[in-house]
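Q: Could you fold this chain for me?
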Amino acid sequence: MYTSTRYAVFGLLLATLCWSGNALVARAFVGEIPPFALSFWRWSLALTLLLPFVAKPLWRHRNELHAAGWRLLVLAGIGIASYNSLLYAAAQTTAAINITLVNTCLPLMTFIGAGLLLGEWPQRRAWWGMAVAACGLLVLISQGSWASFSGLAFNKGDLIMLIAVADWALYSLLLRRWASFLLPIPPLALLGVLMLLGVPLILPFYLYELAQGARLSLTPQNLAAIGYTAIFASLLAYLAWNHAIRVLGASKAALSNYLMPVFTAVLGWLLLGEGLQSYHWFGAVLIFAGLLLGTRGVAINRRAAE
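A: Sure. Below is the predicted structure, expressed as structure tokens.
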């Protein structure tokens, strides 16, 4: 069980890293790839790659899928169709720092939601972990300067991102709430059926976007961006996240969201040549400390249960 917990924590790091790259892609390709086009083709490619591996498991577990029923459609709507479409739409009109700031609402939303929907109020250790990680995040977004923090401005893109964060918190909580229906379904098959249901839900919005004149140019850069979001931000990240929810619970898994600005800063350093400053390192230390503090109790409890 302890090994399973370690895999879950590693999966959180992997998912957060992949989604940090997804946020960079969303911002880098504003004006090049319309938001619903990116969402539709991302999931369509991911489904095409996954379907040969899950077709037989889907048929083999058809009774379990039927038992889950409408719950799968709800999860596909909020986890596949809505969240990333909203994030890509938000990236059209808001800055990177604002997306990072709004994302900090996820752990708090999930903590409260876990108590209200699941009756799983996080332990005091988890709240302290969230507080420590939040302090690290504030160091990052303020660049260690109160003047930078007080000068932040917000716009309608931030409201869209706030809705996206609430959407993702609900997806994570429902994965946990409906675990008795979802656990009999293998992880790959579950992701496959969510994609099968989610892609058609995106299609009407993509067609409306086309009717408004938005077009996707098939350049090598645009195709590479879609490929990244399909393989890393969709297949790998969602499998890792869904597993972490099963093992750690929604509230503790949500703490990993504080790592996004850390990974974004590192990716910016590696890919864009942006320097890492002292406040990056200090903020990263606080965030990692908060994450370890918030999830350490899970590992201890599981080892004691062995």
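A (continued): Residues 297-306 have pLDDT under 50 and may be disordered.
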